[in-house]
Every structure is written in structure tokens, then in C-alpha cells.
């Protein structure tokens, strides 16, 4: 575990207001360590609409399999999240563990196991002893509080150095609704659908299909545009719940994601997702600098994103950033290996506002001093103009430092 | 630059015999630094058959473009290799530099520029001052020696900590021929066709088309199966030359790669390529351990290779190896993200001879102590059985250590 907080951490944390219709509690179940908070339970007063996106890993965790199965029901009463054990690559025992955990949660809440959602994070391959949940979930249900968001975010941390919270409000048909989100993640971050664990809850009244459409659209430029180390987790889970409590204020239930009444909500939701995703990158294991890579002029948006991720995942680009070296030759290398159409003689590259290369060679006005000055900053923008089309994308990453090696060479996460 | 020799370096270097028909010399042209050997010239007494494979980067160096163009001629009289400047992303100036270098070499040797081959390694994006070659190539031609292989390998090193040489002999129709090779490379190693720079010369008499077929086949399980850091160079160049001097001993010229007389030669050539490729991995920047990743039971050989490279390129697998941690959960993660068909419940994983996982869960006989003992070794074998088909592949990599960060955060290569 890293001892100190990331230098890229937010200077202040958002004040998290309650979201009507959901209560939370944490407990020490002793999953891996004694005397450590390792379980979070969210309970919805009434069935909430639910949407989710999950890892595209072909070896997903038992909890991911379980959530995928329940998602078709569209309703949620409880969410149980544990740290210390990912319940991934645990085979038949893994399925037994999710079944038993869901059973314990259903009994505590008084709902069906089809309304329970689960997420686990921690060691891969160790059997998860789910009997440990049975003793704590009933009590957690009784202790549930609305004003518990910050504590909830802390409870799901593993190698994270700070809790990740975000909140926005929006109006739907004149009724104000709140959107709160929490996330965890610092390593094994290269989401191909969602990243590690993130839970977002709103009191808006939105039907499950519309909620799923909003989430699937929102994940592209947020969680699916960040990478810490190119490694995709078995447990990536992003879920969005709508309690519908705003119906009491007269908010008419939304059935269709294309409903114009959702415009403000969609923007606020996307802002929450983007805020959380960037907090994950800023807590990247060993990170000292944040890098935004923008690719313009590619053949398509998809091509731009692939080139952007090739740059953002390149160990040589990331170590150059760590060394404050304006090494744009490595950016050229990463463009070249991306496998998307590129013409060396049309490329232009910027570090911050400094254009370092143009028309297939070093910018005639290139100044090593000016480029180096840009690299001293904590937040660094790299822009590449491909010059072939109108495809654009921006992806986010952090630098690669000795601390990343230290964290991952010592800690079996 | 790394100060000390890789602990994975060969304990002894091969004695390199002369190869009839080729002479070499090195010089200090002052490309980047003063008083440092930075140019190698190889001169063939008569036109040698030539074959080559190059980077699949879409932003290749000017030297790679130049070689690709000359390859169709099929004959080589001279090779000029420089370090200190990659002549990549140098646009029109880059093409002018290759033209001028080839002109200088052609004048020195008395051949056409179409019989000259070039390779450059070093900084990307800096214009290469090719006028510096004009003064040294004529003298180098006169000083050329047959017994200069070890010196030649030393002359092309950059972040390499030891020179890479390999030699084998074979019989073709009862005539003994020699195959010598040299290579350089330690970082930016994820060949998609060849890696960095490698030159192999034989005195066998083999036509260019047959030579190309031999090389294209041989590169798959050797240079194209190694990775240090997943970054593909703009300059990857592997060339094979056949001087034909063995014709003087009565070796009948081979026109077809399928000729049965080539069986022994093919095996010897593949051994040279494999030997050099593994030496590149063993000199991986910051490497302390060598890892062989074998994947069996995949849907196809191509699927097995993709899964193998996903494991070999995973920063989390590589840092676990550096930390001597038998963290097979990260191997599962890397299998899952590879995008090839895999079924968690059929997977089995070995570290060395220790089976750590089987049928989608931890091996019942798993012993942390036994698995950890395997990780203490310098050479580590990881085997994954996918359980779906008969596709197999083995790829080679090294661990990811703080020294890699140090080398690449400080040095503009």
C-alpha cells in the first residue's frame, strides 16, 4: 500500500448531499484483514431502476457474472461491495459465494436475490468466505444512513490514496434531482467498458432501459477514456441507480433516453462520470503527473482513440513524462505503432501550447527550453494532429514512476 | 545509460569466425558525441543476395524507407549503420540524409546507391548531418577486416549493456557454410516484424527470393516473439546477406527456399535468429529476470501468441515477477484482457513446474512456498493451458523494474 496521498489528489472534496431513497452503512467483516472496514452495503427504500456496464474481460469475476444476470430484472434493493477479495477465478466456489452473499442480503433487506447487486475487489483467485457477510448485513441494514457518501467511498478503497466522490444536480421538468457517485481504482486500470468499481445514484425517476442508454453513452468519454497501466481488471463495474424519490416532488417518470427533458440530467450525469474517471487517473499508482492526450484529424473518432491510447499506454512516453523530458520522438513512435492510418509528413505535435513538430520534422521554431518548461507542470497536455480526417478523441493517463513498480512489486492486490 | 552489465548477460560470448566475402570497420563520425564509435560499415567483396524485414510502424525511419526501396534490387555491396540519431520523423531532410549517405558509401565502395543499405538508431526527430559520413567511409572501406564481428556488435550499442553476437555453421550439399549475426536493442522492443537493428551474414550462395523466404519464416518464433516494453520502434531492421563465397567450395546456388538442401541451413539460421532475439530480451532495460510465457490449448497459434503477448506486456505481471511474487491472478487478468477466446473454468496455470491454478480455481495442492521458490530464479517459465484447442506459442520478455524507469526517465534515446 502506498503510504502518502497522491500529489494529484483534489485539494478539497465535494460536499456530498443525501440522495433520497438510498441509505448506506459499512462494517468490518474480516474478509482479509481484521479491524478494517471492508464491506459497504447500499439499501434502496423501494426498488430502484438499475443500469450497469462491466469489464469486457473474458475471465470476469463471479460478482460481475452475477450482476449481469440480475440486470435484466431492472430493479435493485441492495448492493453489497467488499474489498480484500475479488472473488475472481474462483470457479464453482465463486458462484456459491455470490449466491450465499445475495441470500444474506435479501434476508436482511426483505427482497428477492434478483434485486441484489454485488461487487468485489482485492486478490484474484482466493476463495471468498461469504459466511462472513451473514453476521453483518442485517445490522448494516438497520444502521443505514443517507449522509454517508464520503464514508462509503472510503470503505471501497484498496491501493487508492484518497476517496473518490462527485455530485451534481439537474432539473427534470422543473424538479431538481441529485446525482451522487463514488469510485475506487488506482491500478489495473484500462477499462474496456467501465473501470474497477463505481456506483452512481440519483433520486430521479427514470426507467431502467432509459437509464442504461444514458450510462452506456456516458461511459465512452469518461471511464472508457482513461488508462493507468493498460491492464484491464476482471472486476470493472460501473452501476447507476435511480431511486425515483423525486416522483414525490412531481417529477414525471422518464421512459425514453431521447426525452428532451433529460438534457440537463444527461449533462450532469456525464459530468459526474468524467469527474470520477479523472479522479481515478489522478490516483494512478505512483502518479506524479496527469496527462491529457488529444488526437485530432484522424480517419475516424475510433482511430483517434486508438492512437490516443497507444500514446497513453506507451511506457516510453509515460517514463519521459515522469522525467519531465519533452521527448516527442516517443510520441511519433506510439503513433506509428497504433496501427491506424498516419502519414509522417502530415503529423504535427504539441506539448501544451508549444508546437514541437510539424510536417514530418522538428518545428523550425522549436525551443528545447520552452518545451521543457511545459513538462515541469503537474498537468500536461499532448496534442497530435494526424492531418488525414476529422476524427478526434481525448484520453487521460498518468506518468509511470518508480513508485508504480514499488507498489506492484510488493503488494499482492 | 545503464552503468552496469545486465545480470542476464551471457557468461561468455561466442567466438565469431570470419564469414568469407564480407569486411567491416567502425569509426567515430561525431554524429552525436565526440570520441565515440558511432558508425559501422560492412562491405561485400561482390554483390551479396539480400533479404530484410522491417518495422510495421506507420511512421518508419528514413533509413527503413530507403532499405525497403533497394530491397527489390536483391543485391548488396555496402551497409552503413550509425548510432546517436535514428533519422526518423525527419521528413524531407531525412530523405536527403539517406541519399547523401548512400552516395558517400557508393563512391567509397565503387557501386551504385541501389546496392547500399542503411540503418540508423538513436534520437527520433533530430535532423541527421550526413555530411559527417563523407569523410570517414572511404577510409573505413580500406580498413575493412573479416575478423571484426565482436567490434561491429559493440559499435551499434546504445542502451545495450553488452554486445549481441551469435554464430552457427551448416552444410549445404556437403559444403560447410557459416552464419554470423549481430543485434542491438534493449528498449522500445515489441517487434512487429523485426527488432531494432540486426544483421546476419552467411557465405552460402542463396538467391535473394529464397533468402527472403527463409528470413520471413524465421522471424516469427524469434524476433517477433520477444517484447521488452510493448513499444515498437520506428527503426526495426533485420537484414540477412548471403555473400555466395561458398560457391568457391562447390556449393551449388540455391534458388528455392523449399529446396531440401536448405534443411540444415534453415535450422542453423533459425538458431542464430532465436539466439540474438533472446539476447535482446536478456538485455531489456532494467531487466533482472527473463520470462518465457508459453500458451497451449488456444483456438489457434495466432490466438496463443496474442494471449502470450498480453501476459508478457502486462505491467502488473512484469512488476510481480520483479517482486518475485507468484501472482497468478494477474496472469488470469492478462488472459482475460487479451480478447481471445478463453473460459475461466478451463484455465490452468503453471509457474515453473508448479501448477498454481486448475479448472477455474486455485490448485487444491497449491503451496505458496513452492510457487515463491520458483520466482527466486533468474529464468522463469509461465505456462497457461487454455483448454479450448491446439494453438500454442511461446513469447519471451523480462521483468519491469525501477531501473527501467530510471533509464527512460533520464535518457533521451
From TrEMBL, chains A, B:
Subcellular location: Cytoplasm
Alphabetical list of CDD domains matching this protein: OAT
Top EC class for this record: transferase
Involved in the stabilization of negative charge on the oxyanion by the formation of the oxyanion hole, annotated site positions: 121-122
Statement: the UniProt record of this protein carries the keyword Ion transport: no
Predominant location category: cytoplasm
Pfam families given in the database record: ArgJ
Pathway(s) per entry: Amino-acid biosynthesis; L-arginine biosynthesis; N(2)-acetyl-L-ornithine from L-glutamate: step 1/4; Amino-acid biosynthesis; L-arginine biosynthesis; L-ornithine and N-acetyl-L-glutamate from L-glutamate and N(2)-acetyl-L-ornithine (cyclic): step 1/1
Positions of substrate binding: 158, 184, 195, 285, 408, 413
GO biological process, one term: ornithine biosynthetic process
Its EC number(s): 2.3.1.35, 2.3.1.1
Site (Cleavage): 194-195
Cellular component terms per the entry's GO annotation: cytoplasm
Active site, per annotation: 195 (nucleophile)
Signal peptide start-end: none
Catalytic activity: L-glutamate + acetyl-CoA = N-acetyl-L-glutamate + CoA + H(+); N(2)-acetyl-L-ornithine + L-glutamate = N-acetyl-L-glutamate + L-ornithine
Keywords: Acyltransferase, Amino-acid biosynthesis, Arginine biosynthesis, Autocatalytic cleavage, Cytoplasm, Multifunctional enzyme, Transferase
GO molecular function, one term: L-glutamate N-acetyltransferase activity, acting on acetyl-L-ornithine as donor
Assembly behavior: Heterotetramer of two alpha and two beta chains.
HAMAP family to which the protein is assigned, alphabetical: ArgJ (MF_01106)
PANTHER family from the UniProt entry: ARGININE BIOSYNTHESIS BIFUNCTIONAL PROTEIN ARGJ (PTHR23100), ARGININE BIOSYNTHESIS BIFUNCTIONAL PROTEIN ARGJ, MITOCHONDRIAL (PTHR23100:SF0)
Family according to the record: Belongs to the ArgJ family.
Function description: Catalyzes two activities which are involved in the cyclic version of arginine biosynthesis: the synthesis of N-acetylglutamate from glutamate and acetyl-CoA as the acetyl donor, and of ornithine by transacetylation between N(2)-acetylornithine and glutamate.
Protein name listed in UniProt: Arginine biosynthesis bifunctional protein ArgJ
Native source organism of the sequence: Rhizobium quercicola
Gene: argJ
